[in-house]
Please model this.
Amino acid sequence: EVVRAAFDLLRARYVQPIDAGSLIEAARGPERNGREEGTPRGAGASPSTDSVDSLWDMFASRYPASVLGVPDGANPAHVAVRRMTQSLDDCHTSFSSNYERDSSALQRSDAYGGIGVVVRSQMSFAPQPPGPVVTQVFANGPASKSGLHIGDAILTVDGVTVNDVAGSLTERIRGLPGTRVSLTIDRPGATAPLEITVVRGEVVAPLVDARIIPTDGIGMVGIVRLQTFAQPAFGPFADAINRMRDQGVRAWVVDLRENGGGDVGLFVRIASLFISGGPLAHTVAREGTPRTIWATSDLQSGAEGPATPRLVDGMPVAVLVGRNTASAAELLAGDLEDYRIGRLFGETTAGCFGTSRIYRLPDGSGVWITVSALQTGIGHRDVHRVGLEPAVTVLRTRADMASGRDPVVDRAVEWLRTRVAAPVTTSHVFQAR
Model:
């Protein structure tokens, strides 16, 4: 029942037509036949010569034995659905083990039991680190108090090497407050691995981090890091900009390097703080019907309509991006670049572009499905599987992290020095690149 529901939803809702046979083959198990690299197995395939019902009947008649290679203790239905979504090679299409939790995650800011870090495995380091790298340590959190640093690479969790950890590394590190987790880490400059034990606590991930740095020649620069596009982030983000502007900030750095996207409604409100009118995005659904999303003048409700000048109107903006910048964060970065409001610094973004919905499955699990393609507002750019290339490429090494250096911020501030003398005007704003 669960597999059939996901199968039907994927075929009916996914942004491109999907071949039924390809989905069923994916559900069965590890692929036995090769395919062209980079081509999603099911998306855009020719219709199967067999009817959908006959293909399904062959699979269902032997279920669960028809799902091959199920790990011990795993739910074969969940394994099959996860394989179907993974076969599409689409970052917005995935299996969710808990519909209720994930369907409301972007509307709240929940505490969780953990150690207070962000860990990334997809980073551009040379040489490649021996494990996933800690890219953020939350101030006053358990990890911070135990001496874990950004730039540390995690080798083992409770004695298990990260390559052998079953399921998500994040889930393995999280746990009930008061319990302990032991980590073996590789630290830049250390001669041997370090052992660190952290007592888990209640953690609330910071949605927004803001600070002011004084600079020679241009006064104060406001740096605002937006962690995610979750609805509770709007107030802190807008308040930070208001407060820093009142304190005399004349230029801005918007840090989206760890922002994986989120709620489209919040994206509209955040983007409208920078863009004083015009289209912010275009979505194209499976049937080919385009929809334009406009800047808003009502930042409380997010209602679409003509917009008025925003909080940062006329001030230069540097936007920091990286491999973990995805979805709505890529859209914001692309719009700021297309409208000639901001300049991008850092690394090429994730190329995870589109809109998705989560659908409930009969057992309480869910499936995220990409329901429309996405384009930037006036540039009409679709960067899915490509990413945004920054105007200025700057890498931050693990050694930089360990020492507290941030060359991406430094290069951005250098550029801002040249722009304060010649600020952005509204005549620039509506010229596409």
